């Protein structure tokens, strides 16, 4: 084996996910010691950074919008498993954990990932451009999903406390899968060109499409390398989520000791789980590929609802206790304002730093009312 091959096999992006998985297995049953918790935190950060690298390798091979779709779905599938584990552990907040985590993911993607992408992209390139038709259809799908699964339960009367009846929950699950499936078909088959990075003139007006790989001087990686990165991406994401699960008791203890609401735990976990997508979105924005950043943001919000709710609906057949999906009034206000701002940001098909600042202020408002309702 050549020196170059050996160096490639043992670079940090290969070693860190494997070490994180080994640490996960070795400390799963005993991880209360502060030194072990510190090691878990370091491994978590390393696994996040490695996941971003491997996601970008896979995205470069398959092209957009498949790359961002793969990362969004991979993170969300593992996030669903985390939600189910935390719900099954019981506790006073088990009935609202799915709602709080999904809503936190929506707010983080809607305002955090979008806001950071627009801010850093426009700061570097003055104006950033994207396809309003594709991004607008993604936003419409997310709004419909959130309305059916998170808003409507607060107003139905057949069940109490923001919950759905079994029939209503079944409908919400089927509707979520239908909406998500229809969007994926539109994004990857019917109107794929609406979700590709665009070129623009000095005024930010769209002039066409960029090269599909977004980098005319770099060829896509070989299939073998892409499959290798896909496997390491899965390993890294599994490590991120379950290491976060191992840190969650410490987070819960800190939240309780500080006198903060339990919903803060869901916010912190969502921030950790969405870190790979956030970093990938910002890096694409710096390369003037904001369309890819928006694909990641709205695709993650969509997958978070469209895959989580059907899975939770099926799991409720075996799980005891109520499932509260309906948002609180404050949460609904934040969602409504975020939707309006997103519509105004997307409609022109171009954005400046102001739009990024507006979205980030809304994220800050969400964090403030999560800490102090």
From TrEMBL:
It is a multi-pass membrane protein. It is found in: Membrane. GO terms for molecular function: potassium:proton antiporter activity; sodium:proton antiporter activity. Its main location: membrane. The chain crosses the membrane at residues 12-29, 35-54, 66-89, 101-122, 134-155, 161-185, 226-247, 253-275, 296-318, 330-347, 354-371. This is Ca2+:H+ antiporter. It comes from Promicromonospora sukumoe. GO terms for cellular component: plasma membrane. Residues 36-188, 229-371 form the Sodium/calcium exchanger membrane region domain. Keywords: Membrane, Transmembrane, Transmembrane helix. It holds the Pfam family Na_Ca_ex.
């Amino acid at each position: 084996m050549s020196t170059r091959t050996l160096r490639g096999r043992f670079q940090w992006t290969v070693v860190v996910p494997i070490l994180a998985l080994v640490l996960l297995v070795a400390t799963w049953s005993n991880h209360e010691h502060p030194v072990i918790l510190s090691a878990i935190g370091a491994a978590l950060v390393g696994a996040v950074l490695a996941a971003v690298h491997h996601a970008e390798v896979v995205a470069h091979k398959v092209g957009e919008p498949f790359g961002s779709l793969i990362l969004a779905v991979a993170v969300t599938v593992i996030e669903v498993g985390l939600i189910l584990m935390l719900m099954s552990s019981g506790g006073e907040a088990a009935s609202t954990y799915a709602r709080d985590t999904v809503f936190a993911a929506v707010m983080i993607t809607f305002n955090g990932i979008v806001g950071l992408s627009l801010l850093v992209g426009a700061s570097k390139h003055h104006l950033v451009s994207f396809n309003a038709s594709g991004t607008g259809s993604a936003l419409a799908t997310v709004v419909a999903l959130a309305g059916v699964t998170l808003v409507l339960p607060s107003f139905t009367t057949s069940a109490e406390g923001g919950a759905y009846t079994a029939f209503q929950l079944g409908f919400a699950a089927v509707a979520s899968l239908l909406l998500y499936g229809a969007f994926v078909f539109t994004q990857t088959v019917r109107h794929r060109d609406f979700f590709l990075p665009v070129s623009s003139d000095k005024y930010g007006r769209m002039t066409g499409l960029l090269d599909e790989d977004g980098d005319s001087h770099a060829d896509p990686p070989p299939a073998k390398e892409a499959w290798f990165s896909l496997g390491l991406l899965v390993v890294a994401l599994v490590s991120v989520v379950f290491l976060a699960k191992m840190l969650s008791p410490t987070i819960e203890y800190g939240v309780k000791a500080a006198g903060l609401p339990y919903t803060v735990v869901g916010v912190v976990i969502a921030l950790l789980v969405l870190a790979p997508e956030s970093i990938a979105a910002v890096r694409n924005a710096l390369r003037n590929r904001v369309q890819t950043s928006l694909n990641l943001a709205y695709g993650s919000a969509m997958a978070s609802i469209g895959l989580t709710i059907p899975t939770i609906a099926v799991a409720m057949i075996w799980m005891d206790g109520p499932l509260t999906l309906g948002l609180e009034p404050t949460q609904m206000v934040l969602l409504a304002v975020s939707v309006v701002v997103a519509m105004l940001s997307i409609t022109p098909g171009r954005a400046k730093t102001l739009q990024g600042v507006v979205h980030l202020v809304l994220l800050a408002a969400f964090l403030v009312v999560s800490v102090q309702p």
